[in-house]
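Following up on my earlier message about adenosine-5'-diphosphate. Here are the inputs again, as you asked, copied directly from the submission form:
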Amino acid sequence: MVSDITLNGVSYAFGANTVLNHIDLHIDAGSVVALLGPSGCGKSTLLRLLAGLTQPAAGEIFFGGRQVARAGWSLAPEARDIGMVFQDYALWPHMTVAQNVAFPLKMRNLPRRECEARVSQALSRVGLRDFAERKPAGLSGGQQQRVALARAIVAEPRVLLFDEPLSNLDSELRESLCLEMAALLRQLGTTAVYVTHDRREAEILADRIVHLSAGSVAADRLISSSGEFA
Ligand code: ADP
Ligand code: MG
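Thanks, got it. Here's what our run produced:
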């Protein structure tokens, strides 16, 4: 099941520094929205609020009809049915690729055979079917990020959150992985919020680009030919 996302008057501050200033935003179920803006404009903070890693100072956040955050309260990340991909992959080095990908299924009490089938399907989707028993340290940066992507989708979450997942990769790899992720997101149909400072990446991936500037929505536009090059 996918879900829409609604932010009503969401604000956040680090001490006296207001980082997000009364954000109102509705994201349609199944859409891919890029949050675009320069470093320091509040993109990661907004994503962390969607993930439940921090709480808003004001406002409310809803996933579907369900409130997941309000001033001073936040539903825990593991209770939100989300998948996340970060810039630094955040894989567990002591676990194999398959164990890393299986991790979000741990709490679900699925039969072992179903876990294995899901892990193998997720690894196939990111082109890493033959890497299940490897350790992350033996993989390239691009491959490690594919593992993180497989881990994010394995439990079929209702929302996918990305924070500059391609920033650590060289430009050629960035472009090819970006195109692959665009295709994968279309195929999955999951609601996705994708933080980036790269306009081209946003245009390739997203149905819609929300420009953040100094903690406010500065522009909001639909992308007509998402997933394609002009
Ligand atoms: P972006 O992801 O767009 O680069 P962030 O959301 O990370 O921006 O940061 C927004 C603002 O919040 C910046 O001014 C940054 O300096 C400030 N900030 C981020 N993290 C912290 C922190 N842990 N403590 C204090 N200020 C922070
Ligand atoms: Mg950031």
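One observation from looking it over: Residues 171-188 form the longest helix (18 residues). Hope that helps, and feel free to reply on this thread.
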